[in-house]
Structures are given as structure tokens and as C-alpha cells.
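Hi L.,

You mentioned the student needs an example of a multi-chain input paired with its predicted structure. This one should do, with 580 residues in total across all chains.
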Amino acid sequence: MTQSGPDLPEAAERRLESGSFSSGLTVPDFAACLSMGLRPVGLVQGFCAMQWAWYGSGSPYMRGLNPYAPGASNRGSYVENYNCPHGFVSAEHRMWGQNYEQPWIEAAWAQGYETAYRRMVEEAQDAGAHGIVGVTNQVHQLTDAAVTEFHLLGTAVVVEDGPAPAEGPWTTYLAGQRLAKLFEAGFVPISVVAVLTSVRIWAYCITAYLMEGGMYSWGGYGPHDIDQVASAHMAARGLARERVRSQLGGDVLHGAHMEMARREIGEGDEVVECTLLGTRVRRFKDFDPLAKAMPTVRLT
Amino acid sequence: MTHPAPAPKRPDVRQEVRKAAELLSRPHNPGGRGVTSDLSVDEVLLLHSVEWEPVDLVFGSGLASVPAGVWTWGQGEIGPASESHAMAFRAAANRLASECTRVGGHGVVGVHVEAEVHRLHIDVELVGTAVRPVRAGNAPQVFSSDLSARDFVLLVQAGWMPLGLAFGASFTYVPRRGVGTTIRQKAQNVELTNFTEAMYSAREAAMARLQDFGLSLGAHGLVDATVSEGPMAFARHAIGFTAWATAVKMVADEHRRLAPQVVLPLDDAVVQFEATSLRD
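Structure written out for the whole complex:
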């Protein structure tokens, strides 16, 4: 048995060593696991509650950084500037605008997710598991305060008569038949992968006008593309994809799920957050081409 | 009497899992460019069966403004709103196509379409997986399609190819009823023809735009159309009708009949106690 991690409660160690197993698998998934030679050893979980007060409403960071303020920079991150074409100088006129990545929010999210993930894997290691199947992850507000809870859950399994993985237990969102198909197709799961990217839109005059139903310029009545916001959306998605790719090491992200959340702050200002998750898989045998699929019609 | 060909030998899943575990027991040397895809394993394998492969997850966003005041009660079509929808959709589709070209894809399958109509702007988001024929070079022109990879494979096998996502939308004012009509109808179970007519008007305009878009792509037809209609949440006197579909063209000499085999499953549709083989 591998040594338990520093975060694992002593009670959890005792429970995992009790001899019987617990699992989050459905009966068909449980049976499929057994038929694949995967023996469940325990339901493993990881939690992490992160305080987000610094990034909540009223926070100076939430409002964003003025790119002209001394010391304000997020070096190495995505930044795109927009300048007013009108030439006005007025306290009410937004002469500049900026889309910029918020690495401190991404780092806080990653810290929460990775801590919960690590704790789940530690439980599996303590139970002597080779992998964790059927992982589910939930990220939600724990209370009405700005506290976010990360909760990962899965079933730790042992590959019967198989060697232990060199780099710790593998993890996957898949279980049951879908996992069986993955193995049959020649792929082995490596780990679940999840990232969040956050882009703040600090609207310049034209974006602010257009998002409020205003006109682009003098006499230009009619709809217009809102490029600054669309660019921010593209950037949030693109950054998420590249962050995940940087974790792949040449492997494949399978079954990716991309979700966007927008939070309007006012007059074109908003925060765009993109979550991308999936299972990193690696090919373990040469591609075995299939015959063309035969179309069928079921009579039931 | 002809006998069906013998089924290919079913792989031993336990053996495959053990083989995979042996790979993981050795150190890994990372290298190469990772591939991202939102396709299922089934879809990846189906694509391989027609010699296509996923390349990358791609996306396109488009936002267009809706001028203030257009939702106040008027007559006929709300032109700026319809135009705004077309603008947002076109921008998103162009960005999706650029992304696909950049990653070396020949087209995008399984595009998820999210179109949100707000009072002052319309937001269209498209996400899908770029695909290409195995070992193919760059394509002169890329397609996008909201068909799943499974449907794409069926389409290709039947001798058709998707050309692009076509769309059409129309927003129309519901005409006011006269005071007399309103009072007369107040206590009646009666069709509100002003709503019905507005719905038909929006439907006709949107479907005509959808069809024109398909024709502009050189399509022979549109498949898998998705339509949504109803009053706007922020302006109940305005009806919106939006539609999108995949424009397709026959590339074979003639349509190839797939001749599906009729099967009568004898198993329980819900409880499956065995990992289903891909080759069954």
C-alpha cells in the first residue's frame, strides 16, 4: 500500500482499511468494471472550500486594474487595448477600454480544484488503488458568503493482476461501458483535466454605447458588431483550450465540455469565465481500424 | 441461401486493460501537440471508419447590438433586430471557420449553437470539433455543421457532404387589436389572429432567409433544422422566429442507399451487465 498523503484524515485511513468496499457506481457500471478486471476498492472524495471575498463585489480586483495605474499589470497574460476614436476628453466618456485576463482568479480556482483533486487521489492511493473511475466534480457556492466549494468524487479501482501506475492513480470521468469502449479503442485514461479562465471586459466608449443600445457614431443608426465583447469571449475560450493543451503532454483530451459564464457589471463591463474539462487519454496500442458501421433499425 | 459473414473476434477487454496498465507502469516521455475534442469515443471511432479524425475543439463568438427603442410597439417586421441576429450569427460562423482553418481542419462537426436574444444585443456562440480526413493537407474551404459525428458519417456514407450552417431569423410586431375587438373578445374563447398572423409572418421571413442562405452556399437541401419561436421575454408584443440547419450537397453521382438492417433486440434495454463490445 502506498503511503497516505498529509491531508488524509486519520478516520478516512481507518475506513479505507476496513476490508469492505464502497462505490458510487451504478449496478451496470459496477458489473462493467468487474468484466474489465477493475475491482472497486472505495468511494473516494476530495473537498476544498475557497474564500473568494477578494474577488467579490466591491473588491478593487473585481473592478479590474486600470492599465494606466502604476504597478498595474498582469504580465504574460492576455491583454487587448481599445482606444476611443472620438477624441473627446470628458469624465463621462470612456477614452480607453481593455480586455484582460485575471490570473489571480484563475489561480484561486485552480488551487481549489487541484487541492480537492489531490485529496481525492490521496484517498485512492491510501486504499492501494490504481485508478479512479466515474469522477464527478461540483463547484458551487457553499453558503451565501463568497465561499466556493470544490468537491470531487469517484470510485477507486484496482486493475486485477495489473502493475501499479508509475505516476500515481489515473482518473477519468468515464465509467462502465464508455470506459470499456475507451480501452477497446486503444486509449487509457490518464487524468481528469479542468481549467477556468477569466477575462475582464473594461468597455471603451463604443462598446459601452452598443451594449446599451446606442449608436456606433454620428448618424450610424442600426445594429453593429460588438467586437470587444466577442474578442473577450474568444480569448476566454482560447485560453482555456491552450491551458488544457499545456497539461496534455501530447495526449488527447477526450469528451471535452466547455461552458461559459458571463457576469455583467454594467455599461458593457463584464467578467467572462470559461470552464473546460475532460479526460486526458493516451494511446496504448496501434490504431485498429474498424469496419464501416452497419446501420440498423431497431424494432423496439 | 446466403449466410451472414462471421462476426470479427471480440477483443478480451480484461487483456486490453492489463496492457494499458503496463503502459502506465512505465515513465512517459511527453511530446507532440495534444488534441482536444468534445466527441465521444463512439464518434471518434465512427469518424475513423470513414477515414476522418478530430483535430481540435474550435469556437466562434458573435455579438451585435440592437438599437434602443426598436422593441416599442410598431408594425411589421422589426428589421434592426432581424439584421442584428444575422450579423451576430455571421460573425460567429466566420470566427468558427477561421479557427477551423487555423488548426488545419476541413470542417467542424457537432456544432453547439447558443443564440441569446437580449433587449439591446444578440449573442451567438458556436462550439464544435474541427475534423479532417486522415493525413489530409489544408482544405481550400471549410464547412461547419451542427450534425453529430454519427450523423456526419451517415451523410458521407450516403454520398452527401455538409457545406455550412445556414440560419434565418425574423422578429415581428404583433399588431394591436382594436378597442372594440379587445372588448368583444374579452370573455370569449377565441383565436387571437393577430398573434397567429405575426407568427406566420415571422416564420415565413425566417424560413425564406434560411433557404436563401442554403442556396447561397450551393446546397441541395437543409437537414436537421432547429427552430424556436415565441414572444420575447422583455417585449411580449414581439414575436421572434429563429432557425438554423446544416446545408448539404450530394457529392456522389447519386444517393447511396444505406439499406439498414432491421434488428429485433432481445436484451433488456436498460440493464446491461456486460461491457458492450465495439465490434458487436
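You could point out the following to them. Chain A has one domain: 10-62+74-283. The beta strands of chain A are 38-51, 79-83, 96-101, 131-141, 147-159, 170-171, 187-202, 252-266, 269-283, 296-298.

Best wishes,
N.
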